[in-house]
Amino acid sequence: MGQATEQFFAALPRRAPAVLRGPTDGTLQIDLTTGNRTEHWYVELAPGSAQVSREQRPAEATFTVGADLFEELADGRESALAAVFRNEATLSGNVLLFLLFRRFFPDPPGTRDPREVAREVVREQAGRSE
């Protein structure tokens, strides 16, 4: 397993309060495949909380993806939803859990929040009119 994947899962509990604000909760099983081998991760999501485990447990949803692709997801080089649409990853069960979980993935390098870009434009225009 890659370093980005390890760091990603280690950071989930710390990042959860900022990422998980809605009322949905449940367990997402993440299966990382390499050849004929599969590693299972379990992420229990609750408002403001994420607990990561390797201990097998029931899950309301399963996200299956290649370990190499997950490395790209974990460092922002790839989009989880796009991977599902391209059939490079599969999702079964409660889709809402996956949609919440994907918020943990970083934005692609160089991505800027459009609200901040708009604020900069307004500040520039205000500076020119003074």
Number of discrete domains: 1
CA distance, first residue to last residue:
56 Å
Strand order of the largest sheet: 3-2-1-4-5
Which CATH architecture is right?
2-Layer Sandwich
Would you state the CATH class? Alpha Beta
Largest sheet: 5 strands, mixed
Total count of helical runs of at least 4 residues: 5
Average pLDDT, all residues: 93
CATH fold topology: Nonspecific Lipid-transfer Protein, Chain A
Q: What name goes with the CATH superfamily?
A: SCP2 sterol-binding domain
Rg result? 17 Å
Shape designation: elongated
What are the main properties of this structure?
130 residues, alpha+beta, 5 strands, single chain
Fold blueprint:
Blueprint: H1 3-19, E1 26-34, E2 37-46, E3 49-53, E4 61-66, H2 67-74, H3 80-85, E5 89-93, H4 95-101, H5 114-129
Parallel strand pairs: 1-4
Antiparallel strand pairs: 1-2, 2-3, 4-5
Helix pairs in contact: 1-2
